[in-house]
């Protein structure tokens, strides 16, 4: 009998019900009866390493068991966990389609504190990260078919599990007791286009050697087709954004629905000024779908004023059609688990897991302009304007030309940009466990390796564009590139005038394919003991103690051909770094009054090679004043150490908008307007700006005589690590009650309050705030904000502001979790009915940050991404082999920005959303067990609110906020077999 592994099987404590009583009949199928539990009736529950009575756990834990997983109607582990209130998506395949490093990941965060502050475990152990720029476990590497149950603990758990457990822990418990074969074949299809899902899940478990040995083998294949913006989701195609309408000019947008001349924001045109046919001479001439227009003789016949140039709101390009909303996803996962009992008191175990996940996304074609910078900090200048003698200039542009020709263009001839990610993850766990008398022990070692290979197709090479625009007659009636070396490299003349004017050969020459490779490796070793330390009058003092060693290594290999920013591909710097940590921990469960009151203590000391020594601790307890009522509470001090990227990364390419604090400056120091909310004086800012050599060079240029210095535009804003970082520290308090009255059998109510405050939160100061703080400081330039700003020596304009990671902010969240379960046989109909309601209410969600005027507090709560209320309610009906459930998931709406009041122009509110899922199953027989199931997710086919660009929680994808469901209504069905 494999008694050492069985300790993970008894989980009814997590529902708050008495041992052996399930919250629903479906749950009962996967519960271990009380008689099968170890004699001492103890378990290991997430949030502790002590094998303790199920009546005494101090931490609040929510659980989804095997039946819950089956009834959710999806095989995506992340989507399953997101059914729980208080669990939010962080990075998803939907919202990461344009991400450079994280496209296709599927991560969660607890209490909205971020995935880096949420520790995801597999069978209670850390696993290697699936991200090259954070400590994130992508849940799509864990197929739901391998999962036995999921436990989510709220609040700090660093004393138990170490760094990153600030917001809590999601523990994925994998199958370990199947004796036989289990198979599942499932197909699902959205009512709209895309999102066809095929899953095959096969698992085989077998005992051998008279029950002393056990082996489990499993494989899962899953494929989901992509969702693209198309007419089946009309909102995904709408070329609109949230902004103030154009009033009094041309076009006057006040006649658009919802727009007027009051200045209030509305859904106004949101198009791109970069056209596939090109825009020339700052908009004096342009080409739309092969038709030329200009501000001379070829003006559009649409009522615009005489001489009107290109107008983005009317003539612009809609980038949305055909873009990926949700990626093509394909994965294959394999698992092996084995245990062998050497003696009745010693067992060996080994687990191996392999995951291959491929994703593919596409977005609109790349753009470039004559003013596009080339090289790090613009060291090679820009691509450049075409000379007046350029032979390809058509009459429609020549009519508007006054010299060289400026241009801006979208390169549709190259095709849409595609990002292809291949991610392979390997995890190996091996060790031994057993008992030495009454003391249980375990030693183990793990190895994890994650490798990401990313290819981005159809980027553009800026240098090659410049080469292909510099042409001459070839002596044979045609043209050739002037540079002989470029010609040898395939350069052919580039004709950018008009739609589809670029030849295939020219497209091939300027096309660029970017590559990125990232490898994460994790090594851990540890050992622990647990058992009864000694006996006191109230009962045994239980304890656990042990050590852990962990090494994390990362090797990021950016695109070698784009190291100097010569192409449109994002620059990812090479990182080769590592850190290690050695930790010791101990726990104690001390009974104060037998079967009534207990005290639980935990502490951990960790020494990091990066930040030194930190100490985490918990103190809590459980009180049962009367049968059916248990009160529990805990205080914890938790930490998060900086990630490898946060600590070691060189600047990573990015761009940000900036209004230069020196904008408007005149040579005499006038013209400066301090930023809103700033306590800095205009005189201080002026003096600091005039001290800049680059700005003085601007004023000394005769061409700028009498002109104000102006800059308001995009600058390089790379993110960078910081080796002076310290750990984040969080204080967490939880208190709650479990109510299971004897007079109401099969009912439980769990209520938990939590309060989490994070100090020294790691983050970056925005590009804008960095510049404002630099030039508003009387200690200019001797302050840390000025050290990361680079200006051009001749023009004075800001070229780069490095966003360096720092211990900046504090975060605070508090709220209430409520769970209620009830099962009854009503009598007026055969069978039983069950209810499972889980509700989360937030009291606080705020942060303190460094602003221009000093520390300020910002409120997240009530914004669209931070709803005040969430709940999941499931009602089920069971009769013999039939089971049906209806699940409703609710998320309250909110405003787009708490700082914008209802009477202000930019105010926007989105309504609450509720989504409904239906599931039914029929089991024909018990052995072998054959079940067929079917269901509908999002029964009423709701996509959620229209959330375009211009909103803090919107995007050009229009349907990818936390309130949206991209798939819409989805039908699914399948067959399960077990024997």
Compact summary:
The protein is mainly beta and 979 residues long. It contains 13 helices and 49 strands. The longest helix has 9 residues.
Task: Report on the architecture of this protein.
The structure is a single chain. Mean pLDDT is 89; it is low at 1-43. The protein is mainly beta and 979 residues long. Strand 40 and strand 41 form a beta hairpin. The strands form eleven sheets. It has a 22-stranded antiparallel β-barrel. The chain is globular and about 95 Å long.
List its salient traits.
mainly beta, 22-stranded antiparallel β-barrel, globular, single chain, five-stranded antiparallel beta sheet, 13 helices, 979 residues
Largest sheet: 22 strands, antiparallel, barrel
Radius of gyration: 31 Å
Oligomer: single chain
Share of helix, binned = under 10%
Please report the total strand number as a whole number.
49
List the helices and strands and how they pair.
Elements: H1 25-28, E1 42-43, E2 52-53, E3 61-65, H2 66-72, H3 77-81, E4 87-89, E5 108-110, E6 118-122, E7 147-154, H4 158-161, E8 168-174, E9 180-190, E10 196-208, E11 213-224, E12 227-228, E13 240-243, E14 266-269, E15 279-280, E16 285-288, E17 291-294, H5 312-315, E18 324-326, E19 328-343, E20 346-363, E21 367-369, H6 395-398, E22 407-410, E23 417-436, E24 439-460, H7 462-469, E25 471-473, E26 479-481, H8 484-488, H9 504-510, E27 511-536, E28 539-557, E29 575-593, E30 597-608, E31 612-626, E32 629-640, H10 644-648, E33 655-659, H11 682-690, H12 693-700, E34 712-716, E35 719-720, E36 728-739, E37 747-764, H13 767-775, E38 789-791, E39 798-801, E40 803-824, E41 832-851, E42 854-859, E43 869-879, E44 882-891, E45 894-895, E46 909-910, E47 913-926, E48 929-937, E49 970-978
Parallel strand pairs: 6-8, 35-40
Antiparallel strand pairs: 1-2, 3-7, 4-5, 7-8, 9-10, 9-49, 10-11, 11-19, 12-18, 13-14, 15-16, 15-22, 16-17, 19-20, 20-23, 21-22, 23-24, 24-27, 25-26, 27-28, 28-29, 29-30, 30-31, 31-32, 32-36, 33-34, 36-37, 37-40, 38-39, 40-41, 41-42, 41-43, 43-44, 44-47, 45-46, 47-48, 48-49
């Amino acid at each position: 009998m494999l008694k050492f592994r069985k300790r993970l099987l008894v989980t009814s404590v997590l529902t708050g019900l008495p041992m052996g009583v399930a919250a629903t009949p479906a749950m009962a199928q996967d519960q271990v009866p009380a008689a099968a539990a170890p004699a001492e009736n103890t378990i290991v529950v997430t949030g502790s390493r002590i094998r303790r009575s199920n009546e005494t756990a101090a931490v609040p834990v929510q659980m989804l068991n095997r039946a819950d997983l089956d009834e959710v109607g999806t095989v995506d582990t992340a989507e399953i966990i997101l059914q729980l209130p208080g669990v939010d998506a962080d990075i998803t395949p939907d919202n990461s389609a344009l991400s450079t490093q994280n496209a296709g990941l599927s991560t969660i965060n607890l209490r909205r504190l971020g995935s880096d502050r949420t520790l995801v475990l597999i069978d209670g152990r850390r696993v290697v990260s699936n991200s090259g720029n954070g400590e994130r476990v992508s849940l799509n590497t864990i197929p739901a078919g391998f999962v036995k149950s999921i436990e989510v603990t709220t609040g700090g758990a660093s004393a138990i599990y170490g760094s990153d457990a600030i917001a809590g822990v999601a523990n994925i418990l994998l199958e370990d007791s199947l004796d036989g074969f289990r198979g599942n074949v499932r197909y699902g299809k959205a009512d709209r286009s895309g999102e066809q899902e095929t899953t095959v899940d096969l698992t085989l478990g077998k005992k051998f050697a008279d029950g002393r040995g056990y082996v489990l083998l499993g494989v899962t294949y899953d494929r989901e087709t992509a969702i693209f913006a198309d007419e089946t989701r009309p909102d995904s195609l709408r070329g609109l954004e949230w902004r103030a309408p154009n009033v009094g000019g041309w076009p006057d947008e006040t006649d658009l629905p919802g727009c007027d001349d009051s200045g209030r924001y509305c859904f106004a045109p949101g198009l791109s000024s970069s056209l596939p046919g090109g825009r020339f001479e700052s908009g004096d001439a342009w080409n739309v779908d092969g038709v030329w227009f200009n501000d001379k003789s070829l003006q559009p016949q649409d009522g615009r004023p005489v001489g009107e140039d290109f107008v983005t709101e009317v003539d612009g390009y809609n980038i949305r059609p055909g873009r990926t909303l949700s990626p093509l996803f394909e994965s294959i996962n394999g698992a092996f688990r084995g245990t062998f009992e050497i003696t009745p008191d010693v067992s060996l175990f080994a687990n191996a897991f392999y995951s291959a996940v491929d994703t593919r996304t596409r977005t609109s074609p790349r753009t470039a302009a004559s003013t596009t910078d080339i090289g790090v900090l613009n060291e090679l200048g820009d691509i450049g304007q075409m000379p007046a003698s350029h032979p390809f200039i058509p009459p429609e542009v020549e009519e508007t030309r006054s010299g060289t020709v400026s241009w801006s263009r979208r390169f549709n001839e190259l095709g849409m940009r595609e990002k292809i990610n291949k991610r392979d993850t390997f995890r190996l766990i091996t060790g031994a466990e057993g008992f030495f008398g009454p003391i249980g022990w375990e030693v183990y070692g793990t190895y994890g390796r994650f490798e990401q290979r990313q290819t981005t197709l159809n980027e553009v090479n800026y240098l090659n564009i410049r080469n292909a625009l510099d042409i001459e007659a070839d002596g044979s009636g045609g043209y050739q590139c002037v540079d002989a070396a470029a010609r040898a490299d395939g350069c052919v003349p580039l004709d950018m005038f008009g739609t589809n004017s670029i030849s295939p050969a020219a497209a091939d020459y300027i096309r660029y394919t970017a590559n990125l490779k990232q490898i994460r490796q994790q090594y851990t070793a540890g050992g622990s003991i647990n058992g009864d330390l000694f006996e006191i009058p109230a009962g045994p003092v239980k304890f656990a103690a042990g050590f852990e060693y962990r090494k994390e290594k990362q090797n990021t290999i950016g695109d070698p051909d784009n190291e100097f920013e010569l192409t449109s591909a994002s620059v990812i710097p090479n990182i080769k770094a590592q850190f290690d940590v050695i930790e010791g921990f101990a726990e104690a469960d001390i009974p104060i009054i037998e079967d009534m009151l207990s005290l639980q203590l935990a502490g951990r000391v960790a020494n990091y090679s990066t930040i030194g020594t930190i100490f985490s601790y918990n103190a809590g307890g459980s009180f049962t004043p009367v049968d059916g009522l248990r009160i529990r509470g805990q205080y914890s001090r938790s930490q998060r150490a900086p990630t490898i990227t946060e600590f070691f990364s060189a600047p990573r390419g990015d761009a940000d908008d900036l209004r230069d604090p020196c904008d408007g400056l005149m040579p005499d120091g006038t013209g400066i307007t301090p930023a809103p909310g700033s306590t800095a004086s205009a005189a201080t800012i002026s003096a600091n700006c005039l001290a800049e050599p680059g700005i003085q060079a601007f004023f000394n240029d005769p061409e700028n005589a009498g002109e104000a210095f102006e800059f308001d535009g995009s600058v390089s804003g790379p993110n960078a690590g910081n080796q002076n970082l310290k750990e984040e520290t969080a204080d967490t308090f939880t208190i709650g009650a479990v109510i299971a009255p004897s007079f109401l059998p099969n009912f439980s109510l769990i209520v938990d309050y939590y309060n989490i405050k994070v100090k020294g939160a790691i983050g970056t100061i925005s590009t804008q705030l960095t510049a404002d703080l630099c030039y508003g400081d009387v200690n200019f330039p001797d302050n840390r904000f000025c050290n990361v700003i680079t200006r051009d020596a001749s023009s004075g304009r800001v070229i780069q502001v490095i966003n360096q990671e720092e211990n900046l902010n504090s975060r605070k969240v508090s709220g209430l979790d409520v769970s209620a379960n009830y099962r009854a046989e009503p009598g007026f109909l055969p069978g039983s009915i069950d209810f499972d309601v889980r509700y989360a209410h937030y009291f606080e969600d705020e942060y303190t940050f460094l602003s221009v005027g000093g520390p300020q507090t910002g409120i997240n709560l009530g914004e669209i991404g931070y709803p005040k209320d969430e709940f999941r309610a499931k009602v089920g009906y069971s009769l013999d082999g039939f089971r049906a459930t209806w699940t409703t998931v609710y998320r309250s709406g909110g405003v787009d920005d708490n700082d914008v009041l209802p009477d202000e122009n930019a105010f926007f509110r989105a309504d609450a959303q509720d989504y409904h899922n239906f599931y039914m199953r029929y089991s024909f027989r018990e052995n072998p067990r054959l079940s067929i199931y079917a269901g509908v997710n999002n029964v009423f086919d709701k996509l959620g609110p229209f959330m375009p660009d211009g909103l803090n929680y919107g995007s050009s994808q229009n349907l990818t906020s936390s309130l949206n469901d991209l798939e819409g209504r989805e039908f699914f069905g399948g067959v399960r077999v077990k024997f």
